Amino acid sequence: MNTNSDFLSEICDFLYPRSPYYGQFKIEYLAFNAHLQEFSQRVNYISSLQTAGKISPEEAYKQIHHLWKQLKSAKKALVNS
User: How many separate domains does the chain show?
Assistant: First the structure.
């Protein structure tokens, strides 16, 4: 059942697209880029939910603010390591 695995991989690629990193090659930069792409994707989902009326603007703000704090923490952890 390799086709099932391929199908799930395609869905995952569609829902969570990743762009290649072209910057200076350092492990810290690659890790931060991965965190930044995840942040961007989640903010996009939250914005879409708010635009569709599924969550309130206040809830969207709270969720994005929480994601921002997580991104800042990840950046600090990478700088301090």
Answer: 1
The whole model's pTM is what? 0.74
What is the distance between the alpha carbons of residues 79 and 40, in angstroms, rounded to a whole number?
20
Quick: pLDDT tens for 18-58. 677 777 888 888 888 889 999 999 999 999 999 999 999 99
Task: Tell me whether residue 21 is exposed, middle or buried, using C-beta atoms within 10 angstroms of its C-beta: 0 to 12, 13 to 18, 19 or more.
Answer: middle
Q: Which residue has the tokens 């569609």?
A: 14
Question: 56 is in which domain, residue-wise?
Answer: 2-80
CA–CA dist 15, 31 (Å, integer):
20
